[in-house]
């Protein structure tokens, strides 16, 4: 069950983040607030179902960071440093794309300046990020089956002669 929800939450993360990276109309402060609220509801549901150890919440980390990126101030060098230290699950390309797509929804907000985006790129230039922008929503986590050792010892096993396993020797 835990593995199923980890996979499901990864797919939610990938589809939502890919939509955020492709649609200019949803890259805004209010979308960041809505995303963060929805993610907190998912995390609360996981806690209520006792699935917090499944790794499902960790798969949402890039989306959480993208939501926080939309909500942070984007003006000063200190803001750039804060963004770089916060957005560890997002690639440089994803951060820059979100900042380029950021659209103010009211007159109190301002567009992200080109100088600020270049400052972010300068801070993140030493990262070795993969070159892909979008997440692979078809990625499948391996299924893990827990090993439960048997209480029966090998000394107590009797092999019937009809199996023709005479070549096996007890050590």
From TrEMBL:
Dilute domain boundaries: 1-126
Endpoints of the signal sequence: none
InterPro entries: Dilute_dom (IPR002710), Vascular_dev_regulator (IPR052072)
Protein name, UniProt field: MYO5B protein
Transmembrane segments: none
SMART domains given in the database record: DIL (SM01132)
Organism per entry: Melanocharis versteri (Fan-tailed berrypecker)
A GO molecular function held by the record: GTPase binding
